[in-house]
Write a structure and sequence with these properties.
The protein is an alpha/beta fold. The protein is built from 13 helices and 24 strands. 29% of the residues lie in helices and 30% in strands. α1 (24-36) packs parallel to α3, α3 (95-106) packs parallel to α6 (168-178) and α10 runs parallel beside α11. It binds shikimate-3-phosphate.
Length: 447
Amino acid sequence: MTAAQLTARRAGPLKGVVRAPGDKSISHRALILGALANGVTEIEGLLEGDDVRRTAAAMAAFGAGVERQGEGKWRVEGKGGFAEPADVIDCGNAGTGVRLIMGATAGFDLAATFTGDASLRSRPMNRVLKPLGQMGASWTARSNGRLPLTLKGGALQHIAYRLPEPSAQVKSAVLLAGLHAAGGAEVIEPEATRDHTERMLRGFGAVVHVTDEADGRRIVLPPGQALRGTRIHVPGDPSSAAFPLVAALVTPGSEVTVEGMLMNPLRIGLIETLREMGADLTVANLRDEGGEAVADVTARHSELHGVEVPPERAPSMIDEYPILAVAAAFAAGKTTMRGIGEMRVKESDRIALMAAGLAACGIGVEEEPEALSVVGAKRGNHLVAGGAGVVTHGDHRIAMSHLILGLAAEAPVSVDEPGMIATSFPGFVAMMRGLGAEIGEEQPAAA
Ligand code: S3P
């Protein structure tokens, strides 16, 4: 039987108060640092999507005690290092999982073989292998450093690594390797990327020096540090919260609040951009939870207009361009997103798939190697047409973005491979239905 597809259609306004699932980036890091530490780490609010579950299983395979104690409640007993796993580590769809775990693995005198699903096996690992190799790790991989690959670590040397591309995953892999490198590690990032690894390392008792200098941000991890288990409360993921928030902005009469959303300045470029587009977004109860800022964010239906999104904003919203493109489809005028070449090496080529999906839904798009422009459909009473079956290449954010588009388009929008949504947001459909959305499962029409 062909896999079911999901279809979103126009219904009433969206109303309600929801809580976004745990942040994916922070969830991976909590499990990995918990496993590297000595002693017990208690985690609350862990994202229980497939990506993070793979990391939990990997940490058990590397010798940590990993136990699920309730919804989002996990206990990790770290042994102060990794032991050689007895089998292949399958990270599924998770680029963050595999890249960070490879970084952590490199510090130990052992060999580990990594693989993933078809998407992950096609993604570039050289960006991580290059600095790890300079530190002294070795590997055997498929051509172009693709998975499956076997990494051999141990006896690492200090590195001062300037990131060639803005990537928090590469930065984090180097820092995690640096925990067990003679001389520690130093990373220079010309553009600041999400800093959850640096913050969390401190939470585990490590010293991390961060300075902003003329050539970028310098992160120094001095040598000889031992991590101690801690308690972590994982805040709501702004990359997931983006879907109900944009759904409210584009669906007439809507008002939706997402509680407990992470407000780390390096993660909320989308909020800034949507406000520039005229979005009615309010941020309330800004507070600190375990070293990260969180708040309750409310979105109301808004008349949006197109904007130019500056390239330097890309690292702070790299995963949100697909849903921004949907918001742009409902705006008046053109929105241009530049400096987004990194989108092409995510779970799919997201520039190509958003351009194709929006075009199939009747939206004018212009695709360039490192840019995407969307011509908003809002002219008088003209609406976004919709009425397409969208190919997602198994990319969760491409699927969710087009379903949100379908909620406010003239004709229903379907997406294939909807099961992949569970990699980052297992409760997406239930949450959206709870707000009043019409999203249903269907079998595709026979060819
Ligand atoms: C992530 C970093 C980003 C982001 C990914 C999560 C992280 O990837 O797209 O979803 O947790 O460090 P890059 O490091 O490739 O930019």
